[in-house]
């Protein structure tokens, strides 16, 4: 019963097969290979547009920091939620990659930015006032750090507020597939059609071995050469890019990424229902995706601990449990018996 993280899960076998499948012959390096070209076609299908450029990275932190550094100057700020991964879990990589850019933290329930706080932050931007640090970017996360999902309409609404003030809108999609399954939105509806300029689309937590895609949409494509130069300077230009591209192709084939996320989300619902059956365990946030934040009853906490289940303590005495594409049915059955 391992609920530690979706990054603890193995890669899906189809990903490893895809790696073996591209492991023959010479190919041009640094993304000029035919596998990366094929990925472009797959992305065109998945995103329902060809007005984009993309780059591949092996970690989400690199993807976020590189993406943000193209849009936030050293003397600018990035608006984000106070619990955002870029603020809490990236060892100041966004600040480092932007060369000093500042994160301006906003409050809100369930790690979703509060609209009033966002409006105030945007209204407070004074580009010519020398003493303050004007925001250049709004960064949203979907699924959020509390496992909740912004519906497409909300993303669109927040993007519109930001864009009216000339901001670029970034979406941290480390669990993008879980958000798609949860909201029922298409990748297009909840990204470029909702005003997202730059998307970091994570596939690692969904079931890849290590593959994150930075996608620049529309006018953000002007930054593509700069993105590549920054990736190179930061040491994030994988020479054998075909092996990253192959992972993504395997995930998009037959909409595998969505079926894997469907399983992960379903398992999370089952686990949370089982935990809450005792009437004393309480969810801290609604379970929209594959993460469960709960205040466990003493008896459930003891039962889980004694059975050797793995999960993390979270803020304020709560706990976080995460399911993944490979959380087996047997785990649910065992949990059901244990808690009964
Ligand atoms: C996991 C995660 C990332 C990426 O983390 P890495 O460990 O660097 O791959 C980024 N954003 C969010 C919201 C995440 O949960």
From TrEMBL:
Q: Name one GO biological process term.
A: amino acid metabolic process
- Domain Aromatic amino acid beta-eliminating lyase/threonine aldolase, by residue range, is 3-296
Keywords of the record, alphabetical order, are: Pyridoxal phosphate
Which top-level group of life is the source organism from? Bacteria
Co-factor requirement: pyridoxal 5'-phosphate
Q: Which InterPro entries does this UniProt record tie to the protein?
A: ArAA_b-elim_lyase/Thr_aldolase (IPR001597), PyrdxlP-dep_Trfase (IPR015424), PyrdxlP-dep_Trfase_major (IPR015421), PyrdxlP-dep_Trfase_small (IPR015422)
Q: Which GO terms describe its molecular function?
A: lyase activity
Pfam (any one)? Beta_elim_lyase
Q: Does the keyword Zinc-finger apply?
A: no
Q: Answer yes or no on keyword tRNA processing.
A: no
How is the subunit organization of this protein annotated in UniProt? Answer: Homotetramer.
Q: PANTHER family given for it?
A: L-THREONINE ALDOLASE-RELATED, LOW SPECIFICITY L-THREONINE ALDOLASE
Q: Which family does it belong to?
A: Belongs to the threonine aldolase family.
Give the protein's recorded name. Threonine aldolase
User: What is the taxonomic lineage of the source species?
Assistant: Bacteria, Pseudomonadati, Pseudomonadota, Alphaproteobacteria, Hyphomonadales
């Amino acid at each position: 019963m391992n609920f530690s993280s979706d990054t603890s899960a193995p890669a899906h076998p189809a990903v490893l097969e895809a790696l073996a499948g591209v492991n023959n012959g010479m190919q041009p390096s640094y993304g000029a290979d035919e596998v990366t070209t094929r990925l472009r076609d797959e992305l065109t299908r998945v995103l329902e547009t060809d007005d984009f450029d993309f780059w591949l990275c092996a970690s989400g932190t690199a993807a976020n920091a590189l993406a943000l550094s193209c849009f936030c100057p050293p003397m600018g700020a990035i608006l984000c939620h106070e619990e955002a991964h870029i603020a809490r879990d990236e060892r100041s990589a966004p600040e480092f990659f932007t060369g000093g850019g500042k994160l301006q933290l906003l409050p809100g329930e369930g790690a979703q930015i509060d609209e009033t706080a966002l409006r105030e932050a945007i209204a407070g931007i004074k580009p010519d006032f020398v003493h303050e640090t004007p925001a250049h970017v709004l960064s949203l996360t979907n699924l959020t750090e509390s496992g909740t999902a912004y519906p497409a309409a909300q993303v669109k609404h927040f993007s519109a507020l930001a864009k009216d003030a000339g901001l670029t809108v970034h979406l941290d999609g480390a669990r993008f597939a879980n958000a798609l399954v949860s909201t029922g939105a298409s990748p297009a509806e909840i990204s470029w059609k909702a005003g997202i300029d730059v998307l970091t689309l994570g596939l690692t937590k969904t079931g890849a071995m290590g593959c994150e895609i930075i996608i620049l949409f529309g006018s953000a494509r002007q930054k593509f050469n700069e993105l590549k130069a920054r990736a190179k300077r930061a040491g994030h230009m994988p020479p054998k890019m075909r092996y990253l591209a192959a992972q993504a192709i395997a995930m998009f084939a037959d909409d595998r990424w969505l079926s894997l996320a469907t399983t992960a989300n379903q398992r999370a619902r089952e686990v949370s229902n089982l935990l809450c059956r005792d009437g004393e365990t309480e969810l801290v946030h609604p379970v929209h995706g594959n993460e469960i934040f709960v205040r466990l009853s003493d008896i459930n906490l003891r039962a889980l601990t004694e059975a050797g289940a793995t999960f993390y303590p979270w803020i304020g005495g709560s706990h976080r449990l995460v399911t993944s594409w490979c959380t087996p049915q047997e785990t649910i059955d065992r949990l059901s018996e244990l808690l009964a």
